[in-house]
Amino acid sequence: IMEYSMQCKLYLLSIFEQNFSPNLAGLAESIVVGHKDNLEKEDSDSFAKSGTMHILAVSGLHVGMIYLILLQLFTLGNKGKKLKKWQSIGLLLILWVYAFVTGLGASVIRASLMFSLIEIGRSFFGRQGGGFNGVFAAAFIQLLFFPLNLIEVGFQLSYLAVLGILYFYPKIYSMVAMPNVLLSKAWQLACVSLSATLGTLPVTMYFFHTFPVWFMFSNILLVPFGMI
Questions:
Q1: What's the rounded Cα separation, in Å, for the pair 104 and 40?
Q2: Fewer CB atoms inside 10 A, N or C side of the chain?
Q3: How far apart are CA 64 and CA 112, in angstroms?
Q4: What are the tens digits of pLDDT across the range 43-77?
Q5: How far apart are CA 224 and CA 228, in angstroms?
Q6: Element (H, E) at 164
Q7: pTM (global) more than 0.90
């Protein structure tokens, strides 16, 4: 399964290389499928120093964006109505197809599992699961199939980032009340970025010996552009 997944990823990379210049192809491959091998070192260093490397790695940010877009498409804006089972199945199928063609990395498996648990609970059982339960359930399932993921840096950073957001975000966000919607959205992005950074700080310092100081401001600007 993993070998066929990599073949699909390589096919996608060949499409980028045929249609873009080497510099743009490397950037597009990083953002869309998380392949950073062809990324210019200067670009890679810039993203690392600004604390926005997660934009270049297929992770919960990418899967979350796709999940929200699919949710809107499948529900056609009817947020108050429960998704029908076939809608939920279609949504999850597309989500896992994306995870499959991007190479089934540790972080994308984590995100896909978490969103699958949320969607199944909401659509089939009519329940809203707790965030921490979803994280640990996803980790348990993932390690059953891929036990060596536990020692991968990507796995550790992915789960610590989510745990950091779940634990720190409510506490930090409630500290400041913003006067309008635009500032409130910017503050939300800043709080999410700070929470994830705090959660991953021990592993980041241990493996990479660096701490990005501009991450809050850079994420406010780059995450919306990344979604577009």
A1: 24
A2: C
A3: 9
A4: 877 777 777 776 777 777 788 888 888 877 877 65
A5: 6
A6: helix 153-173
A7: no
